[in-house]
Amino acid sequence: MKVDAFVTLFLAQLAGYFIGGIPFAFLVTWLKTGRDIRTIGSGNVGATNVGRLLGLPYFFLVFLLDFAKGAGPVLIAQYFARQGTLPAAEFLPAVVGFTAILGHLFPIYLGMKGGKGVATAIGVLLCLTPWATLVGLATWILIVLLTRMISLGSMAFAIAFAVAHLVMTPTPWVREQWPLTLLVIVLALLILIKHRANFARILAGTEPKISLGKKKVETDTTPRP
User: Fold this and answer.
1) How much is the pLDDT for 2?
2) Domain boundaries defined on the chain
3) Rounded to whole angstroms, how far apart are CA atoms 66 and 6?
4) CA 225, CA 43: separation in Å to the nearest integer?
5) Which of 69, 100, 130, 164 is the most buried (most CB within 10 A)?
6) How far is residue 181's CA from residue 177's CA, in Å, rounded to a whole number?
7) What CA–CA distance (Å, rounded) separates 9 from 173?
């Protein structure tokens, strides 16, 4: 790969990371309450924790913002890739999508401690592999409705979209497809790893369930595991 291709990919990685790292859960909670989301509720910097604290409308607000910071950079990268004027253009969307998710998981703005990446991953994947992502979303909705556990739905989503992508892609490891296939597998593993504590709580029967009602902000500032 030529030097200019490396430069292009490097700059794309930086852009994806810094956009993906914008901590919307932290910002929304701070603007609404003046408090640090990392010190209340589960301590997770994500839509689920915000929803438990502030209510369902704020869950959807943060979810959509996290979704957008994944989808937006990928759509821009796809636009430039279609122009065919940039080196390594075929790799740009997958690279930008991956680093956007890494930014959410490990944001420099919050000392590298971010959320679990599901909403941002959905934004990225819906642009890159829409049908497999829709299978994952359908699985997520079904599991959440049946169990009222967003964490379990997120883990099911990770497995479902990865399997769906491999099944729906006839040749997943050819040159045109392998960056996306690798991205799908790595993202699924990252989502599962980030939810390992939730999995332990599910097995122990202590994982919290969502409520459809509006909820007031909690007054207990002690982080829970």
Assistant:
1) 62
2) 1-116, 129-210
3) 28
4) 8
5) 100
6) 6
7) 20
Structure tokens at 224: 């829970």
State which H helix or E strand residue 200 sits in. Answer: helix 196-204
Model confidence over 60-83: pLDDT tens digits? Answer: 999 999 999 999 999 999 998 888
**Quick one: which H or E segment has residue 30?**
helix 24-33
Three-state SS annotation for 71-136: HHHHHHHHHHHHHCCCCCHHHHHHHHHHHHHHHHHCCHHHCCCCCCCHHHHHHHHHHHCHHHHHHH
Which residues contact residue 97 at a Cβ distance below 8 angstroms, ignoring those fewer than 6 apart? 16, 70, 73, 74, 77, 124, 125, 127, 128, 183
Q: Is 191 helix (H, G, I), strand (E, B) or coil?
A: helix
